[in-house]
Amino acid sequence: MTETGTKLSSVSFFCPAYHDEKNLPVLIPRVHAFLSEIANEFEILIIEDGSPDKTGEVADGFAVQYKEVRVIHHPKNLGYGATIRDGFLHSHFEYVMYTDGDNQYDVREFAAALLLLQEADVVTGFVREKAASGRRKVQSVLFNAFVCILFLFPIRDVNCSMKIYKRKVLDAITIKGTSAFIDAEMLIRARRAGFRIAQFPVTHFHRQAGLASGSKLSVVVPTIIDMLKFRFGLL
Known about the structure:
Layout: E1 8-17, H1 24-38, E2 39-48, H2 55-65, E3 69-73, H3 80-89, E4 95-98, H4 111-114, E5 122-127, H5 134-151, E6 163-166, H6 167-172, H7 182-192, E7 197-202, H8 217-231
Parallel strand pairs: 1-2, 1-4, 2-3, 5-7
Antiparallel strand pairs: 4-6, 5-6
């Protein structure tokens, strides 16, 4: 339930999943229970990004267990941006929320964001203390600084994977990028279109299973390229 005691009309939740065969069995039942409390109608999309482990099999198992779960399989690994984009493109309902499939966020912390939806069109989390290596923390600080400077966009944590978009925002903007810059791209496009963005604090937990890939050059370089292309109107 929201703080006003009412449920949201309908919610699409999605998560990217890669090397998450041990994470999904924790995440999906938790998401299902949470959405059952706060939404009249909901769907759960697992975007399985060509994972070499049993992530796809585990995801398909949840589609059998829960009628609200759908799985989208990538035949090969396409990367974070492509999974996020597919999540939005395949979501059907009035509110679209997402987080990662690695259990580094607690979906129940979305409860604090629901009241903000009365005034805001997009709600995005910010992490107070990242449970990450020193290198990842530095990358995050630099990325947020670059986004702030290049786009005059003062936001505390661009890449925090705890976000809710209203359907009218998604209908009004076009998602073009497929790199990890996609979080920033969408927020900037939403702001330029005149939509209201609110922020709320979330907790970041250490990854207990699976593999992190956010600091790889194969992720960082395309993100920088898309950031520059977007800055100069080429994306």
